[in-house]
Amino acid sequence: MSEVEEGKAPTTTSKRLQSSHSSGMESSILRFKDVNFIVGAGDKTKNILTDVSGTVRWGRVLAIMGPSGAGKTTLISLLTLDALYGRAVGKVTLNGVPLTDQIFREHCFVVKQHDKHWPYLTCRETLRYAAELYDVAASEDIDAVVEEIIQKMGLVTAADTRNSSMSGGQRRRLSIGIALLKQPTLLFLDEPTSGLDAASSSNIMQEIVRVAKEERIIIVCTIHQPSTKVYNSFDQLMIMSRGREAFSGDVKEALPYFESINFPCPPATNPAEYFLDLVNSDFSDEKVITEILDTWEERRPSAGSSHHKKGFGDDEEGQEGVTKMKRAPLRKEMAIMFRRHALMMQRDPILYIGRCFVFLTTNLVFAIVYWNGRDYTQDQAINKFWVALWFIGVPSNMGVVAVYALNDEFKSILRESKNGMVTGFSYVLAKTILVLPMFFIFALFALGIPAFAIQDNEPKGFGAQIILFAACMFSFESVAEALAVWFEDPIIGMLQFMNFWFGAFLFGGFLIAPDDMYWPFRLFYYIMPYGAYARSTAYEIFAHATFEPCDRATNQLSAICIPETDGVKVLGELSKVFPLLSSDDNFIADLVAILAIGVFYKILYVVGALYKSTLVAKIHEK
Predict the structure, then answer these.
(1) b/e map of 93-115 (b: 16 or more CB within 10 Å)?
(2) CA 173 to chain centre
(3) PROSITE patterns from the entry (predicted)?
(4) What does the DSSP assignment read for 529-579?
(5) Mean pLDDT value across residues 354-365
(6) Which residues contact 164 (CB under 8 A, 6 or more apart)?
(7) Which residues does residue 219 pair with via DSSP β-bridges, in sequence order?
(8) Are 391 and 450 contacting, i.e. CB atoms less than 8 angstroms apart?
């Protein structure tokens, strides 16, 4: 089908909030025909969905019900192009055009079962940033747009409450409010009443039905066990069991249909509960369920449903083709992302500001434990080196916290990317620019007082040591970012980070000399940052220092004892204990090596973020 000419965005706030009209798709229809979902290969293939079909037009709500394992979540994952764990077969169209990732990002929105919003933003801030990112109005009209959504969603009392403190119902209404800001043609809701009490569930469903009618949106939702009131609010109903349809049609058709096949609903019984029990293997005989499924397969065309194979919904009138929607230019998206994440970094007590104070506190402890190391006597040379290692060892190890936090953050970005709000590129670019100064702040907190006030390091080496520390933290943070993106489970990512940190410490060259490492283990010395950091940091500490001379005759137990006072010469003696060290200045080479390791993992992070933010399932036509 040819696409409709590109629509022009309206200029007034009221028009911008009328999603279907503003997109030029005011009579849209979603159709899916004979969709199957297959997992496994060869003789072990299994159909999770079998020949499921349906048609939903604008202003109507389709509720997909079924017992656990019925396939309803798989169906909505398939329709939202999220079913990546198997092969999807069939046909899914919006206004006759096959549903693609681009069409989904421009015209669809999915609200997952568990609402996830930025915890350190308020409801109003969340909506405002969403309005800006979706470019719904001129900047001077954004506040009016946001206020209208707040009023529509009944969020007035929670408008300035942080998302982490909002109730489940308020978070769900916030999710729907964000969807309205996008002005979608098609809205998917996965278990919209999950975790809510009866009153909240009823209110949410009333709001969903109202939104469908007033905003002329197609809404498809999965729902587990609705109350009678919620059940009666649906326009269309699909009952599933074992990945097949047991019924699909208007809600008012369901009771007559089941009565016609000798399964009448008892008086004063919630129809939804009755239907679910009827197709649930735990409560009904397997033969009965098979009979119900087979009967629907045979009688579907005569059941009066708008969901049937023949004609694929041809009885439903509606426009053909989809509009091409414009989005905010990348530079504007970048600026908004920069402001949003800068605000969250300021408010987050753990990821950045919190780690600064952890670094300060921990390194103060090391500085005090190694109190005698502040003396410039040669018997303290080894202690001076070891305290420098501890100053970087624990802070870099705290990157394990970043793996968990960044994994959670990236999942939120994936949801926004899926719904066409942001791109993975704008996220990684804005976040990288914001975080770079933090490595120098980390260094100031970790070394400022502990190393230069308590351990009395020479001020001449301050700049170089700060740069080396910041570079090393950049390297470990890049590892944390890459693991956070590539591993779905943050715990596995955290364990891998700990493996990297332990490997860096073991192969840093100070526990065992590089030449004594058995090949190919020596390779780890070159691809991990501690060796380069330790060598140049030790040089900066010793090169600018003047030590007391040492007389071997009176200091026989001291590992380092020479009559010279030059710190470089003392470092040369120390290198006999730690062959890693050198009395030569290798600052540039070591800094480049540390940064190269960080850049390598940063590239892995960027590639992973871009890849995963554009990863979608493909629906193969038969």
Answers:
(1) bbbebebbeebbbbbbbbbbeeb
(2) 21
(3) ABC_TRANSPORTER_1, ABC_TRANSPORTER_2
(4) SHHHHHHHHHHHHHHT-BPPP--TTT-TT-SS--S--BHHHHHHHHHHH-T
(5) 97
(6) 119, 120
(7) 61, 187
(8) yes
Contact predicate 452/466, CB 8 Å:
no
Tokens standing for residue 101:
């990732």
Span 267-273, average pLDDT: 93
HSE-CB for 26 with a 13 A CA cutoff: 7
- In angstroms, rounded to a whole number, what is the distance separating the alpha carbons of residues 120 and 125? 10
Q: Contact 560/574 with Cβ under 8 angstroms? A: yes
Distance CA 165, CA 179 (A): 21
DSSP letter for each residue of 150-184: HHHTT-GGGTTSBGGGS-HHHHHHHHHHHHHHH--
- What radius of gyration, in Å, describes the C-alpha atoms of the chain? 31
| CB-facing half-sphere around the CA of 506: CA atoms within 13 A | 12
Backbone CA torsion sign across 572, 574, 576, 578: negative
399-452 tens-digit pLDDT = 999 999 999 999 999 999 999 999 999 999 999 999 999 999 999 999 999 999
Cα 572 from Cα 560, distance rounded (Å) = 10
> Which whole-number Å values give the CA distances from 137 to 11, 16, 128, 143, 379, in the listed order?
7, 7, 11, 10, 70
* Full-model pTM: 0.89
Do residues 90 and 34 lie in contact, with contact meaning Cβ atoms separated by under 8 Å? yes
Region 272-288: mean pLDDT is 90
Q: What is the DSSP string of 251-317?
A: HHHHHHHHHHTT-PPPTT--HHHHHHHHT-TTTS-HHHHHHHHHHHHHHGGGGT-S--SGGGGTTS-
Amino acid identity for residue 334 in this structure: M
Cβ 273 vs Cβ 228: under 8 Å: no
Q: What are phi and psi of 440, to 5 degrees?
A: -75, -35
Whole-number Å distance between alpha carbons of 157 and 349: 26
Domain boundaries, the chain: 13-313, 330-613
DSSP 8-state symbol, 450: I
Residue carrying the six token digits 């008012």 = 252
Domain boundaries 13-313, corresponding CATH code = 3.40.50.300
Q: Write phi, then psi, for 539 (nearest 5 degrees).
A: -60, -45
Local structure of residue 122 (DSSP, 8 states): B
Task: Return the structure tokens found at 580.
Answer: 């890693």
Measured distance between the N- and C-terminal CA atoms of the chain, rounded to whole angstroms: 19
Strands (E), 304-440: none
